[in-house]
Amino acid sequence: MTAEPCRYLEWDSAFFGKRIAQVEGQRLDTSRLEAIRRWCEDNEIACLYLLADSDHAETVRLAEDGGFRLVDIRCTLIRELSVPTSDEAPAQATAHMREARQQDLPAIRAIARKGYSFTRFYYDGHFPAEKCAGLYEAWIENSLRGYSNAVFVAENEGRIAGYITCNLPRRSENSRIGLVGIASWARQQGIGRALVGHALIWFRQQQSPRVEVVTQGRNIPALRLYQRSGFLVDRVQLWYHKWF
Predict the structure, then answer these.
(1) Could you give the domains of the chain?
(2) Rounded Cα–Cα distance for residues 93 and 89 (Å)
(3) Which of 42, 128, 172, 223 lies most in the core, judged by the most C-beta atoms within 10 Å?
(4) Confidence of residue 87 (pLDDT cuts 50, 70, 90)
(5) By the 8 A CB rule, do 194 and 228 touch?
């Protein structure tokens, strides 16, 4: 039995109200591209995601020639935890770190609504900004309700200044930082660095050998944050969207 060239994304389709799918695998050739086109036609797909290897020239050319539009450069960074370093507990931040509680949700959601304009959904231009904001609200809400293994907040004088979500590995995967959000009034105060440092200590306590995080190539502040926290770039991929 031949594997399907794409998979239908039920959650994305339901949330955005459009039939959305993703290409299976990270590389294209001419025959695969035709199979993908037929599958999308048969399944009445409105939007197709492709996560492509950035170093495979044929895939990049075929994606561009096939009507895919580049919407994001996906950077995965990894931090080895085998040797502790002083940057896991930066002293500059003025906020108190603690586990998130359900009563924090309104403040956390408000941060999530405004914190992810660098992402591919905003950059695409076909998704309404209100729906993009709602996507990250739903993501952090689900994280707080058990999707993530831990959610920590930075609290400054009774106000939530930021948050970070932590996910432990399944099978052979790395532990992962999911979402990091900083309130607009709390930026440039070392909050992000302190949250990442707090998360690294927690991951070490869970005996995680390494932690990964994903961010956008256009998100220079996030890249600098993770590099200053000891993360190194592991791989770079390209997100494409194709609209039918």
Answers:
(1) 6-67 (no CATH), 78-236 (3.40.630.30)
(2) 10
(3) 223
(4) low
(5) no
